[in-house]
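Protein record
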Amino acid sequence: MSGIEIVTFGCRLNAYESEVMRKLARDAGMANTVIVNTCAVTAEAERQARQAIRKARHSHPDAHIIVTGCAAQIHPERFAAMAEVDRVLGNAEKLTPAAYCDNSERVTVADIQAVKETALHLIDGFAARSRAFVQVQQGCDHRCTFCIIPYGRGPSRSAPIGRIVEQVRLLVERGVQEIVLTGVDITDYGKDLPGRPTLGQMARRLLAAVPGLKRLRLSSLDPVEIDEDVFRLVAEEPRLMPHLHLSLQAGDDLILKRMKRRHSRADAVAAAERLHRLRPDIALGADLIAGFPTETDAMFRNTLALVEDCGLVFLHVFPYSTREGTPAARMPQVPPAERKARAAALRKSGDRALVRFLADQIDASVEVLVEEDRRGRTEHFAAATLDRPVRPGSVARGRVTGFDATTLKVRIAA
């Protein structure tokens, strides 16, 4: 290889940061380099990262391999011990130009908890993507008992609204149709900024400042932290897409308490019901964890019922993964086989909900953001296949004629 290859694991924030690293490495004149941007959400994510590093060395024996991301921030010594790795960068260092100009230190990982600001680097596009992610917030001040991410990301800190507008305006000028605002805990946005603007206030000002932005999405939201301006945008702003993803994790109050979540089951249901009232066609997704420590069959059934009670369509289901150093790791564990079985049951319930949603879309008019010549996503983020090729990056209008498994079939308007 002669250029820069980036292997990205994990969240949308990592996807955004990978594009920042691509620009920083290119600007520094780097070549023949592989950057592995790791995730630490689960043990499986770390295993996959190590596998990708070994594969990268096998495919590119002469390349310079840099490992960064949350797993590298939390366990730098584990990655530094791999013979395939040339350098390890922390989550703060990976976003600094100096890191790509000076290769003298093999391991450069600072205390992420000491970082007080977040830099929003301007990028002018995303490689091979029709939508772009924009970081608006970084880090987390909360300590859910199952989560290791705050140790990899540091405290919550927000990007100034003016800088966000500048980034979005640049992307829209480059032809980006859809922006996804992302972060670790975006409902915490603004608490560290002058005037303490909320996420909804920031989104409203962004849409007013960039009238050319056609589609806006928000990444995962804590149901009890959704501010009134977000609810108003859901009700009034057609450019805010009718699809929200909620960070629910469980549907049993005792499990939620043991997770140290900020919401109750009733809070989650009330938020979902309000969103459906404000925008009846909205499609809600959610993160759910199966087999959290101490979870009984009855507790799991409460989570399973949440799919119906909240009207969920898109599920991200995770069997609980024990993370060393978290309080949940010291709690009585559910056997791994039971975790897998419960996760499978949740996914099956989610599959049924998705089929009902897709069936309701038949004969509906939709606008599809085209990702490949005949594939894309509707306003509700439903996967769609078009009846003829359309230029990637454009928005195609059409009518739903049917669906196949998890994908709508759309006939493009003449």
User: Anything to note?
Assistant: The mean pLDDT is 93. The longest helix spans residues 336-360.
